[in-house]
Design goal:
By secondary structure, this protein is an alpha+beta fold. The protein is built from 5 helices and 5 strands; from the N terminus they run ββαββααβαα. The mean pLDDT is 85.
């Protein structure tokens, strides 16, 4: 099993830890993917800059599918990833034309709920 958690003291880092039955190939793949962002650690731990970790999420997917390794993200890191997924979905909706309402629709909604609009 491989654990990852977000730490925000000082410069934000993701601490990735390998536990006993982890597949060596899976750990090596993660080390290779995260190599440009590793700022510390040991043979069973990597301290990785958050920007690099998030840019290499595809490597986590590979480790799960190719090596069948179990990955566990801590609660703070899960929240960050979910926030990014929501942001991406909103950007895709805007690009697809499903985006936010027009100012006229917003003004009509505000007027219907008794908010004043400046016109």
């Amino acid at each position: 099993m491989i654990l990852a958690e977000l730490y925000q003291q000082g410069r934000p880092l993701v601490v990735v830890t390998r536990q006993a039955p982890a597949v060596a190939g899976a750990w090596a793949r993660l080390q290779a993917a995260m190599s440009r962002g590793i700022v510390g650690g040991s043979s069973d731990r990597m301290d990785v800059r958050v920007d690099v970790f998030l840019a290499e999420l595809a490597a986590l997917r590979e480790v799960r599918t190719i090596f069948h390794e179990q990955l566990q993200l801590g609660p703070a890191l899960q929240g960050q990833v979910r926030s990014l997924i929501g942001d991406q979905k909103r950007r895709e909706d805007v690009a697809a034309g499903v985006g936010p309402r027009t100012s006229e629709a917003s003004a009509a909604s505000c007027a219907a709920s008794s908010w004043r609009t400046s016109r």
